Amino acid sequence: MTYRTTRQWTLALAGGIAMIGALSATSPALLASPHPGASPALPAHHFWDDLTLEAMPGDAWERLRENLAWQERRHDARVQHWIEHYRANPHNVVEIIERARPWMAWITEQVEQRGLPGEVSLIPFIESSYDPHARSHRGAAGLWQFMPGTADALGLRRHGGYDGRLDVVAATHAALDYIELQAEQWYEGDIELSLAAYNAGAGTVNRARHGAQARGEAGDYWQLQLPNETMQYLPKLNAIAAIIDDPDAYGVALPEIDDAPAFAKVPVNRPIELAQLARATGVAASELTALNPGLTNGSANPSTVEVVLVPVEQEELVLAELSAPAPQASPAPAGDGQYLVQRGDSLSAIAARHGIGVAELRQHNGLRGDTIQVGQTLEIPHRSLAAR
């Protein structure tokens, strides 16, 4: 099935398509084994031996099923191979699905809004096992496994304690843009071919397609001769989609995931330390860290990011804390006769504040110059009443 996006792109953006499409392989399929080092499958072990939960109507899976578009592919031999593979490795599947819990509903919503096949929502299952911190030996990173060059072309910045490839919201928007751009530029809107190019690079797919057409063969994904990883890419995707679409047919009971997104976006209007925000609001620091993997140093700055993600049920609490006036720093004594240097302090200002001379303060603390550091403790010379 061919899908065309109706979105309008600016001339400047269109001009960058050729550069993006010419990039080489963007991401590894981390489940090729499906995981390096994964324990061997037990032949007699199946999903129904391990999974007992039932999917509830109206959950994220129901919404995803409504948007699946390629289910006729489940009968393909390559897809059947991966269905059996997943059935033989239920613990891996369950672990991946649980890791997807914070992201599944929101990603499905984004895919649905663009009119893309629902299967696109499951690409992170193949790419990163839904691990926002995943990194490959080739240099790809994040839920969508962007290579540095592709990330740069798509505007995913990496600086100042921030990596856009690890930012799930930013990377998801970039990935869906990329898939649509390639489909329009190279493949007359064919999303399957665009996904193949997402894995192998547009150049590899285009050469295979041209070669097939020159031989009088169809140029669709399922007829192309591609690198093995790319040959298995869509079969893996369709296999897990088939299981999600009809879990009863495969003896599977999926864990429940709510249909509504699990997080809310909170504007960043001033620097935010996640650990400090957690202490002030009572939100678990581990939750804030997990929802904001792109903040690699645990802090958000308006010059770097526009929003931080917080658990949706605690959005109002966090907004109230962030809207409160920022506390004003005030000089804090470190003890009797001591002073703790604050940001913006100078030796002359401290001396004037305590009614002593700069030279006296410098000599009393054994300083050779006027340089002082934030957090440094200075001894303040004691003066008798007679000397005042």
Automatic annotation (TrEMBL):
Identify the residues that the record assigns to the LysM domain, covering every copy: 337-380
Q: Which Gene3D superfamilies match?
A: 1.10.530.10, LysM domain (3.10.350.10)
- Per the UniProt entry, the signal peptide is 1-31
Which stretches are transmembrane? none
Alphabetized UniProt keyword annotations: Signal
State the similarity comment: Belongs to the transglycosylase Slt family.
Q: What is this protein's record name?
A: Transglycosylase SLT domain-containing protein
Taxonomic source organism:
Billgrantia ethanolica
Which lineage?
Bacteria, Pseudomonadati, Pseudomonadota, Gammaproteobacteria, Oceanospirillales
